[in-house]
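Dear Dr. H.,

I hope your travels went smoothly. While you were away I took the liberty of generating a structure for the chain from your last submission, since the lab meeting agenda had it listed for discussion. I wanted you to have the full record in hand beforehand rather than looking at slides cold. The sequence, exactly as received, is reproduced here:
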Amino acid sequence: MHVKLAETIPGPATDAVAELAERYGMHVIFGMPELADGTVYNSAAIVTPEGKASSCRKLHLPFDEATWAETGDEPCMFETPWGPIGITICYDTYCFPELNRYYRAKGCRLVLNVTACPDAPCTAGSARLAIPAYAFIDYMFIASANLCGPDLRSNFIGGSSVVGPASSGGDVETYIGTMFGEPGSDVPGMKCGTIDLSLCDRFAEIPLFRKDAEGRSDFRPELYAKLYQELAEA
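The corresponding predicted structure, in token form, is as follows:
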């Protein structure tokens, strides 16, 4: 199905969305199978208010996705008047905290999670636990858009929502929509609202990235690079 429906980016689907994005001055990000030089990717299309389209390719492919898609190799951010925004796709979001932390270290206060999360315990459980946890420890907002209802083999649980730091500090809140598994989370619809990105900085001042007088930080990417290089060579 995905291979048969795959399109280029830009292509027919993104052209139609780009016309509306330009008309209403919106950024639009949505998932689709992308065809590029004969290869299919599980991608997020990024459409700007100027009507331009580009793609973000999923970095990790669970279950049978690798039978129809190839892995992407680059994290994706785009600039906005509110600062950089990162993109993660489903499994990338829930099971790979490195990606969310990378985006936050690069200055993103918002990450957009394009997802098709079904009610299988491993995926639904990961979604319910990971979103608030990463929003809390990284001082960031995570906006998820998920499918609702059944397809041929799965039942998708909805849960489209925006989760971020609590206005009182020390917790996270669901600001827009309904989190995975909560009453009404599987009802299709459009979720609208406003978030205050300054909450990401207001209370904690990002202590894990803050440097002391000697330029030292709790966040140590040079150490993590060494550790991951050891794993890569094992």
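Two observations you may find useful: The chain has a mean pLDDT of 92. Helices lie at 2-5, 12-24, 91-95, 97-105, 121-137, 199-202, 221-232.

With kind regards,
E. W.
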